[in-house]
Design a protein that fits this description.
binds iron/sulfur cluster; 2 helices; 64 residues; Alpha-Beta Plaits; two-stranded antiparallel sheet; 23% helix; alpha+beta; globular
């Protein structure tokens, strides 16, 4: 089964790192200042993993 990316918006600090690393699948909601997933399939798993590993709040995870 495909893995799904989940963002814990409670934990997200809105730093924008994920959107900078994997800009095709993450974006920052400027009103809420929280990250959201735009299109998981637009990024490689490696890019998503890098964003996940770099997120300072560890707010991005895989849900299997
Ligand atoms: S890198 Fe993490 S804390 Fe920063 S905007 Fe993305 S999900 Fe939020």
């Amino acid at each position: 089964m495909a893995k799904t990316v989940v963002i814990d918006i409670e934990a997200c600090s809105g730093c924008g790192t994920c959107a900078a690393i994997a800009e095709d699948c993450f974006a920052l909601n400027e009103e809420t200042e929280k990250a959201y997933l735009t299109d998981q399939s637009a990024c490689s798993e490696d890019d998503i993993q890098e964003a996940m590993d770099t997120c300072p709040e560890e707010a991005i995870s895989w849900q299997e």
